[in-house]
Amino acid sequence: MDFVAIDFETASQRPDSPCQLAVVDVQGGEVREEHCWLIRPRSMEFSPHCIAVHGIQPHQVAGEPQWDQLWNQIAPWLEGRLVIAHNASFDMRVLSETLATYDLACPDLDYSCTRLIARRAWPEEHGYGLSSIAERLGIVFRHHDALEDARTCARVALEAAAKTGCQTFGHLEQHLGITRGRLRLGQLIGPRTMRRKKVECELEEVTSAAAPRRRSRTARAVDQLAQLDGWLQLLHGVRPLEGKSVALIGTLFGMPIEESLLLLEAMGATVQGRQNLKTELVILGQAASTASSQRDQPLGIAQLTQATQRQADGQPIKILTQRQLLAWIPGGMDRVRELTGS
């Protein structure tokens, strides 16, 4: 079990704005060294959402080195090593895009994700965020401190290996059906899992004749959880719609309605079926229902009219376009297309 666990915290939704990085070096299943750096982002533009997550204020990094001044210290811990992170797609994107911003050569490396590992190692559990997993494993830590997160990520990998009896990381990946991600020439290829878990196949062998319908529902639920996991990884814990009561008109970014609602859920919204006195935000999507007759208004127009009327009546409703919503998604439309395959 040899690897380096890392964790980034960012100043804003821009992936090239790291303000903290930690690395935890594990060799032979034991932690050998730990390092943590505060980093001064190039723009020093801190998002209130990100500050609320990690608590790092601009004044705390104002006197710290920028990324290009630290890279010679950081690079030896990553080059030629297997790198792991929890929600690794976020951390690896921060790494690759920050190197590109500073015009620094990007190392080739392999990486894996402890969220995927945990889902396979403990399939009977619910909730695979780092804090949820740590609580189940009895790990006490301060979430969204880079060093504490990296230590916990390393512990999750080691606990998964102990549970499965695997002696090497490669054996663990093989046992759980996970293929390693790669960073090559600045391009990311994410880690993957087999579509069906071994435990699910074993359960099917002893299922009754009435099971096909239940399996169909389960398969849909698994797909939805996978989609939600993808959004959560992309957002890296930032929930800009936390606690907001949101009504959606149409769908988002050409996705089906189910995926549109999953994105809003991942962003922290309480999604309403229709507008009411609690509605705080109305999002204008696309592909709203058309009218059933020439005399009827299209559903989207009727809902928008209702929202503007509520505004006129004094209800504090904000109307947001999907383009404005996109500004809160790291990587913007390119990442949406990557995740949805559109």
Q: Number of folding domains? A: 2
Percent strand: 15-25%
> Can you name the CATH architecture of the largest domain?
2-Layer Sandwich
> Quick one: how many beta strands?
13
What spatial order of strands do you see in the largest sheet? Answer: 3-2-1-4-5-7-8
What's the CATH H-level homologous superfamily of the largest domain? Ribonuclease H-like superfamily/Ribonuclease H
Structural class: alpha/beta
Helix content: 40-55%
What is the name of the CATH topology of the largest domain? Nucleotidyltransferase, domain 5
| Approximate shape | globular
For the largest beta-sheet, the strand count, sense and barrel status come to: 7 strands, mixed
- Our count of helices gives 14
Separation of termini? 37 Å
Overall pLDDT metric: 81
CATH class of the largest domain: Alpha Beta
| SSE sequence, one letter per element | EEEHHHEHEHHHHEEEEHHEHEEHEHH
Low-confidence stretches: 196-224, 288-298
**Rg (CA only):** 22 Å
Name the descriptors.
Rossmann fold; 7-stranded mixed sheet; alpha/beta; Nucleotidyltransferase, domain 5; 2 domains; 342 residues
What can you see in these coordinates?
This protein has 342 residues and is α/β, with parallel strands linked by helices. It has 2 domains: 3-194, Ribonuclease H-like superfamily/Ribonuclease H (Nucleotidyltransferase, domain 5, 2-Layer Sandwich); 245-340, Rossmann fold (3-Layer(aba) Sandwich), CATH 3.40.50.10190. It has 14 helices and 13 strands. The protein has helices spanning 48-54, 58-61, 67-78, 88-101, 114-121, 130-137, 146-164, 169-176, 198-205, 211-235, 257-266, 299-312, 322-326, 332-340; strands spanning 3-10, 18-27, 30-38, 82-85, 109-113, 178-179, 181-184, 187-189, 192-193, 245-249, 270-272, 281-284, 318-321. The chain has a 7-stranded mixed beta sheet with strand order 3-2-1-4-5-7-8. Strands 11-10-12-13 form a 4-stranded parallel beta sheet, with helices on both faces. Strand 4 (82-85), helix 4 and strand 5 form a beta-alpha-beta unit. Helix 5 (114-121) runs parallel beside helix 7, helix 6 packs across helix 7 (146-164) and helix 10 crosses helix 11. The radius of gyration is 22 Å and the shape is globular. The relative contact order is 0.11. Residues 196-224 and 288-298 have low confidence and may be disordered.
